[in-house]
Specification:
This protein has a three-stranded antiparallel sheet with strand order 1-3-2. The protein has two domains: 115 residues, Arc Repressor Mutant, subunit A; 33 residues. The protein is mostly helical.
Length: 151
């Protein structure tokens, strides 16, 4: 057994890659990438978003998010609109295709949950809570090193 198989960090990395690959395979017939799917889900559930709010929700910087949104707009998944009151603010709304694929992609969350071996919503919520705690504690653990590097 390789030593990496006994490392928590590698197990998380491998699980993340496997999950992303599953999404890639499921979304491929629609020509939608996993990050695009995350944008769509956010808009479906939370409604219109500014680019900065969307970036905060998805933990993506504008250098990554802007080209992603541009491609999505070309495919009529989203629309980008500058606010008339402040042209620096760009609001993202669903395009016609972005609205229409919602029903077609409705099976994906349950397919992913089944692939993860999550029997019900309670199990999924427990895993999500654990992953949120892990993310928070890892950010806190890295903070002193980040501060030292900034000096």
């Amino acid at each position: 057994m390789p030593v990496t198989d006994e490392m928590v960090c590698f197990s998380l990395y491998a699980a993340s890659r496997a999950t992303t690959q599953a999404y890639r395979t499921l979304l491929e017939p629609w020509g939608i990438t996993y990050p695009q799917y995350l944008v769509l889900v956010t808009l479906w559930i939370e409604g219109d978003q500014t680019v900065s709010t969307l970036g905060d929700h998805l933990q993506l910087d504008s250098g990554t998010l802007s080209p992603l949104l541009r491609r999505m707009e070309q495919g009529d998944l989203v629309r980008r609109e500058r606010r008339s009151t402040d042209e620096r603010v760009v609001t993202i709304t669903l395009g016609d295709r972005g609205r229409s694929v919602r029903g077609e992609l409705a099976h994906i969350p349950s397919t992913i949950a089944a692939g993860m071996g999550l029997p019900d919503e309670h199990a999924a919520m427990e895993l999500i809570a654990t992953l949120h705690r892990l993310t928070e504690t890892m950010h806190a653990a890295a903070a002193p090193n980040r501060a030292a590097a900034d000096r």
